[in-house]
């Protein structure tokens, strides 16, 4: 049985012009089944169609334009307009020649029609910090972000003992 999954990416460089959080736009549906995502309208929204337990991995390619002191970029997940607790990762970009891939992941239950976003904020809006797409000659594009998600198990098929407890200390 095929389960819901996607790999969505962006071939666009995205550099926030503000220090406030922004949702990352994803403009390529590399492969998608059982989820909803538009590469044009609301390109930052991934919509769940089947309630269940999901694994998410987001891997942005970071960089900056201006050289100077190291500056950081944060990445986290948002669910229905609310930040998901304990989902933030931070990377420090040292120079304009620095490139790195940051991996962020989570596993949690989602319900049908939930909307997931990958968020980004930068320490400085004047250094050209952000996610970068690269086009090396004779090689495939390096996307500015690759987002993967897959359904581990449908909610309706779990017994009450199997359903995960969210927020348990």
Short structural summary:
The chain has strands at 5-10, 22-23, 28-33, 35-36, 46-48, 52-63, 71-79, 82-83, 89-93, 100-101, 104-110, 115-122, 130-131, 145-154.
Tell me the span between the first and last alpha carbons: 34 Å
Rounded mean pLDDT score: 91
- In DSSP terms, counting alpha (H) and pi (I) runs of 4 or more, how many helices? 0
Global geometry: globular
Low-confidence stretches: none
The CATH class assignment is Mainly Beta
Structural class: mainly beta
- Helix fraction, binned, reads under 10%
Taken in chain order, the helices and strands follow as EEEEEEEEEEEEEE
The CATH topology is given as Jelly Rolls
| CATH architecture descriptor name | Sandwich
Q: Give the total of beta strands.
A: 14
Largest sheet: 7 strands, antiparallel
Give the DSSP E fraction (strand runs of 2 or more residues): 35-45%
> Measured on Cα atoms, how large is the radius of gyration?
17 Å
Number of domains: 1
What would you say this structure looks like, in words?
This protein is an all-beta fold and 169 residues long. It has one domain (5-157): Jelly Rolls (Sandwich), CATH 2.60.120. The protein is 0% helix and 45% strand. The protein has no helices and 14 strands. Strands 1, 3, 6, 10, 11, 13 and 14 form a 7-stranded antiparallel β-sheet that branches. Strand 7 (71-79) and strand 8 form a beta hairpin. It is globular and about 55 Å long. It starts with a strand and ends in a 15-residue tail after the last strand. The model has no long low-confidence stretch (mean pLDDT 91).
């Amino acid at each position: 049985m095929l389960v819901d999954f996607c790999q969505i990416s962006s071939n666009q460089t995205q550099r926030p012009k503000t220090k406030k959080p922004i949702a990352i736009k994803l403009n390529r549906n590399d492969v998608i089944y059982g989820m909803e995502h538009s590469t044009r309208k609301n390109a930052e929204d991934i919509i769940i169609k089947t309630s269940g337990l999901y694994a998410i991995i987001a891997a942005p390619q970071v960089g900056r334009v201006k050289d100077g002191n190291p500056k950081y970029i944060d990445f986290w997940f948002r669910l229905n307009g609310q930040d998901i607790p304990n989902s933030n990762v931070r990377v420090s970009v040292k120079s304009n020649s620095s490139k790195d891939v940051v991996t962020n992941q989570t596993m949690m239950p989602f319900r049908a029609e939930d909307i997931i976003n990958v968020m980004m904020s930068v320490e400085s809006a004047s250094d050209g910090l952000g996610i970068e797409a690269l086009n090396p000659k004779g090689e495939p594009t390096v996307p500015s972000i690759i987002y993967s998600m897959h359904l581990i198990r449908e909610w309706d098929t779990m017994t009450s003992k199997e359903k995960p407890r969210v927020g348990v200390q």
